Amino acid sequence: MSLRLSIIVPVYNVEPYLESCLQSIVTQSLSPSDYEVLVINDGSPDGCAAILDRYAQRYPQIIALHQENQGVSAARNAGLDRARGRVITFVDSDDALEPNSLHAVLERFEAADLDVLYTHIQAVDETQQPRGLDWTTGEDNVVCDGFSHPRRSFPATFYRASCVGTIRFPHGIPIGEDTVFNLKVQAFAQRVSYCSLPYYRYLLRGNSATKAVKTDKAYRGFRKALDEIVDFQKAHFLEHKEASHYFDAQLFLFLDRIAMHHLVYSLKASYFNDITRWVREHQKESLLVQLSATYPAIHRPYVVFWLIQHGLRWKQRLRTLLWRLKQYLLPRNKK
Predict the structure, then answer these.
(1) How far apart are CA 24 and CA 19, in angstroms?
(2) Where does the Glycosyltransferase 2-like domain start and stop, copy by copy (predicted)?
(3) What are phi and psi of 2, to 5 degrees?
(4) Strand pairing of 35-42 and 3-11?
(5) CA 261 to CA 254: how far, in whole Å?
(6) Each residue's pLDDT tens digit, 142-189
(7) Quick one: DSSP state of residue 32?
(8) What per-residue confidence (pLDDT) applies to 44?
(9) Is 324 part of a structural domain of the chain?
(10) What is the per-residue pLDDT across 6-62, written as a single tens digit (0 to 9) for each?
(11) Which of 178, 203, 228 represents a domain boundary (last residue)?
(12) How many domains does the chain have?
């Protein structure tokens, strides 16, 4: 039986937050018979499984799925494989929905006959206080095709199930797998819009994400993302001119992450040569030229890049040293 909506919630090691997340969903004004909540316990080592089973027994719209730990992509894909809703959305298990917001957003999606709908995201801290970040994506209630509308990784994005089709989250991309999924779905979308109604509360948590993005595993994931995007474009949009600009923008996004977190951070010749080779093979040299505005000499030979980046590092260190020296001497001068 088809439902109006499927909400997919991947769960791993979020015991302190899971109950608040689920409670924010089941207390929505949307009729329980209209939607399902597919909550996938990805082998969580804490007490998430017990919380999930308790909620599944109490609320018929919650479906508990348990699997061995395979990663967030596998968890979301398990939800997609079971989803019966005509519309699909995702909620991260440490986030929450604004009270009585779901019905209005779903109505907006259905009334405008959309393929993709981006919704408002408010970042909050552990005490649920707003913390500056306030995500919007496009103009409220303006409908564009997928290549024209701004793009954003979910959460807080609604998708027409038929537009998602067989698209799934890629494995082997630990950071940015949601970007790859989203850009593929939006490429097929004919009607994309943004809804400014308060809907989603995104929890800012202190974690090791900053360190994780600089690892070799993250680099390999970014490289795989580049290949995923190119292969997808070749398979579906090879001769589409508008698509070329769209996919180049997505490639630029991952190249920027590689430049920031790996090329400039580590200055490893192996990373630099690997990316340079990839860019040449796919004739994307223009993207490196664009990146050079932010990362000087990234489009030049490695020796030039290394020398300039080291020079910039020493320049910054000198500035910091002079500033500290000034701060040290200033009180004495006042005496």
Answers:
(1) 8
(2) 6-136
(3) -80, 140
(4) parallel
(5) 11
(6) 999 999 999 987 679 999 999 999 999 999 999 999 999 999 999 999
(7) G
(8) 96
(9) no
(10) 999 999 999 999 999 999 999 999 999 999 999 999 999 999 999 999 999 999 999
(11) 203
(12) 2
Residues 215 and 243 in one domain: yes
In a domain, 318, yes or no: no
Q: What is the dihedral of CA 77, 81, 86, 90, to 10 degrees?
A: -20
pTM for the predicted model, two decimal places: 0.91
The two three-digit tokens of residue 209, written as one number? 């994400």
| Contact predicate 123/134, CB 8 Å | yes
Query: DSSP labels for 116-156?
Result: EEEEEEEEE-TT--EEEEEE--S-BT--B-TTTS-----SS
Confidence of residue 335 (pLDDT cuts 50, 70, 90): very low
| Amino acid found at 223 | R
> Which domain covers residue 114, as residue numbers?
3-203
| 96 part of a folded domain | yes
Cα–Cα dist 157/186, whole Å:
11
d(CA 133, CA 202): 9
Same domain, 191 and 223: no
